[in-house]
Each structure stands twice: as C-alpha cells, then as structure tokens.
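Before we proceed, please read the two lines closing this message. Report back on whether the structure tokens fit the sequence:
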Amino acid sequence: SDKNNFVSGSSKNKTELNANSLNLVNGTYNSELTTNSLSQDSNNSHKRMSVDDCYKKIIEAVHNHGTIKREQVQNILNVGSTKAKQLLSDLVSRGDISVCGKGRATTYVFNRS
C-alpha cells in the first residue's frame, strides 16, 4: 500500500533485512512474511475462520476432552468471552452440545439426547 512505500534520495540504496521482515530495495519498503508475522496471523485466526470452522474446532475439543469451558474456547480460537459465549450458545441451540452447571462451573458436553 502507499502508506508503506517511501522513496529514498538515492536509487542505489539496497538493504535487505529478511530476519526483521524489512526489505528496502531501491528506496521502497516491502514487508515480508516471517515466522513472527505467521504467529501473529495464527493469533488472529478467528478473524479469517468461518463460523462453521469455529464450531468444528469446539466440537473437536469436546470430543477429545469430554467437556469444554468458555475459557478454553477463548484460548483455542483466540476470541473474547462474548464471542466464545455466542459460539457455545449457537452449538447448544443447534443441539450439538449441552450445558452442565451454572456460572463459573459451566461446562459443555456432547448432547446426550
């Protein structure tokens, strides 16, 4: 994008710092994909993940562990408490999982009915 580009006074300026994801060639800044940006992307994976993919991840976690708590959904999907509650509520409404307990003790399990 234009805000990431700048022109240097010298057209002979050529610097590449791949480890720091900075690539300065002929005065133009270009960002590169690095391990750091990959980990940042994975931390924001819920923003690209479809709702169905979120449901699948939650159901997979319930299958693997028997139960799940809202806090675990937050960590798995890197979402806030409101989004985690919404996703869990949707799965309960769909009949995929059931609520056990109340308040801080609330857990979710596969629907037995």
